[in-house]
TrEMBL record:
It comes from Methylomonas koyamae. This is HXXEE domain-containing protein. Keywords: Membrane, Transmembrane, Transmembrane helix. The lineage of its organism: Bacteria, Pseudomonadati, Pseudomonadota, Gammaproteobacteria, Methylococcales. Pfam families: HXXEE (PF13787). The chain crosses the membrane at residues 9-27, 71-98, 104-125, 155-180.
């Protein structure tokens, strides 16, 4: 049972993302704009993940390009990165924005922005499309920029909030690099 969840999580996520988008106006009615935008990053990310992981495209592509053909990214790693590592982080950011400091919603925003930039960087480095590039560039960057502006306009985007958001997003992506390096990625490359 868990093996099927680990290998097919993206399909439930895509459907949940569509459902959350349809419910978004009702769920966020009365919320501040920064809080609503924090939450919006969850279904937006779920739809991005469908482009990225449908038919195991990202793992296969990543292992071929970054791993040099080695299985440096397993199905379990992809699940952990995307479900607790993305969905969980966005849920935590939403709770932190409500219960502690509204600006901490920027964790969700920068997670998406950094991911979009990584997809673009990967496309430039390998001179080819990578799974997730279209939604990373077309959704994450403009919605992320708009979100950052809205946080600023609401007066909840101080230095600490920006620094925390960027630090968490970069740390998650750096953790992925450390993990795949430990599995043999980048060996023999300058």
């Amino acid at each position: 049972m868990f093996e099927r969840l680990i290998t097919h999580w993206v399909y439930g996520g895509a459907l949940a993302g569509l459902l959350l988008l349809m419910l978004f106006p009702l769920l966020t009615a009365g919320w501040s704009m920064p809080l609503a935008l924090t939450f919006l990053h969850l279904p937006m990310y779920m739809l991005h993940q469908y482009e990225e992981h449908d038919q195991d495209r990202f793992r296969t592509f990543f292992n071929r390009t970054v791993g040099g053909g080695k299985p440096v990214l397993s199905s379990l790693a992809v699940f952990i990165i995307n479900v607790p590592g993305v969905w969980g982080v966005i849920v935590i950011a939403t709770y932190l924005a409500v219960l502690h400091e509204p600006g901490l919603g920027l964790i969700a925003v920068y997670l998406a922005v950094v991911n979009g930039l990584v997809h673009i960087g990967h496309a430039l480095a390998f001179k080819m499309y990578n799974p997730g590039l279209a939604t990373g560039a077309a959704l994450f960057l403009p919605v992320g920029a708009y979100s950052i502006w809205q946080f600023h306009m609401a007066g909840v985007a101080g230095f600490v909030a920006h620094a925390t958001g960027i630090a968490v997003a970069v740390a998650i992506h750096a953790g992925i690099i450390v993990y795949v390096r430990s599995r043999g990625a980048f060996e023999g490359r300058a």
